[in-house]
């Protein structure tokens, strides 16, 4: 009887969280979900998810807990909200934003990782060699730390220069120092490193298999649009920068 009650509670919590997250995603692309209610949907979904994780906590639950923490931070700081994202054009209306770009890039990494976790559950791929597992753990920790340092150092340059990191806002300064001397997109490199690092520490194979899809999306959709915008704003200065620094590494 107790087992049935626990199963029912699990289904209710999972269903509530899933429906709320789905409604929040729909609200990014359409106005079916009122903008004023969008943050409430995300906060509710995160709260229900965290309750579910606490009730049935396991080591692998650390990943979705971190995911929820990132989503909650984005909403509470108003960095990722339906109110700011549906600015479907750039500030001066010179270019249209690809509809898919209404979803912030960190969300793309998170959603891809979550899909990978689902595939791992449905069709498990495991590592059977202790040495390989140990190497994955060590490499994962190194990549996670390196990615975090790279991300914060890159964001710090933008904060110091008082310019924006949001694609549809007009940047006030071209950043070419620090990590930007070696990559035009160190933030995306850092997200990739963190993604691989978390996958390594959790011994998750499917998320790694799906990662090339994210790279393709960034390389052929997101970055070209951002580069077009930067050429419009900074002209020859940006062209000279591109001639000296590679897109990735």
Short description:
Helices cover 66% and strands 0% of the residues.
Give your account of this protein's structure.
By secondary structure, the protein is mainly alpha-helical. It has 2 domains: 1-86, no CATH class; 98-249, Up-down Bundle (Four Helix Bundle (Hemerythrin (Met), subunit A)). 66% of the residues lie in helices and 0% in strands. The protein contains 8 helices and no strands. Helix 2 (38-55) runs antiparallel to helix 3 (62-76), helix 5 (130-161) runs antiparallel to helix 6 (186-201) and helix 6 packs antiparallel against helix 7 (206-234). The protein is globular.
Descriptors for this entry?
mainly alpha, Four Helix Bundle (Hemerythrin (Met), subunit A), 249 residues, 2 domains, 8 helices, globular
Q: Compute the average pLDDT.
A: 79
Radius of gyration: 20 Å
Number of strands: 0
Q: What sort of overall outline do the alpha carbons produce when their principal axes are compared?
A: globular
**How many helices does DSSP assign?**
8
What is the level-2 CATH architecture name of the largest domain?
Answer: Up-down Bundle
**Percent range of helical residues:** 55-70%
Taking the sheet with the most strands, its summary is: none
| Quaternary structure type | single chain
Structural class, from secondary structure content?
mainly alpha
CATH fold-type name of the largest domain: Four Helix Bundle (Hemerythrin (Met), subunit A)
Strand content range: under 5%
Low-confidence stretches: 86-95
- Order of helices and strands, N to C? HHHHHHHH
Distance between the termini: 58 Å
CATH class designation of the largest domain: Mainly Alpha
Count of structural domains? 2
């Amino acid at each position: 009887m107790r087992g049935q009650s626990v199963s029912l509670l699990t289904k209710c919590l999972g269903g509530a969280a899933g429906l709320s997250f789905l409604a929040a995603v729909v609200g990014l692309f359409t106005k079916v979900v009122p903008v004023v209610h969008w943050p409430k949907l995300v906060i509710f979904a995160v709260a229900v998810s965290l309750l579910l994780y606490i009730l049935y906590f396991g080591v692998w639950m650390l990943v979705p807990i971190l995911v929820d923490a990132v989503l909650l931070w984005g909403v509470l700081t108003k960095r990722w909200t339906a109110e700011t994202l549906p600015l479907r054009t750039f500030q001066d209306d010179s270019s249209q934003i690809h509809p898919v770009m209404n979803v912030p890039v960190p969300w793309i990494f998170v959603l891809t990782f979550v899909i990978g976790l689902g595939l791992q559950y449905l069709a498990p791929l495991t590592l059977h060699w202790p040495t390989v597992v140990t190497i994955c753990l060590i490499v994962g920790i190194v990549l996670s730390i390196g990615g975090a340092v790279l991300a914060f150092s890159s964001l710090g340059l933008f904060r110091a220069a008082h310019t924006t990191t949001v694609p549809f806002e007009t940047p006030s300064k071209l950043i070419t120092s620090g990590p930007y001397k070696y990559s035009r997109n160190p933030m995306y490199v850092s997200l990739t490193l963190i993604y691989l690092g978390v996958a390594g520490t959790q011994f998750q194979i499917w998320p790694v298999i799906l990662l090339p899809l994210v790279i393709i999306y960034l390389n052929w959709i997101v970055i070209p649009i951002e580069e077009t915008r930067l050429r419009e704003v900074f002209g020859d200065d940006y062209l000279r920068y591109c001639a000296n620094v590679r897109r990735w590494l």
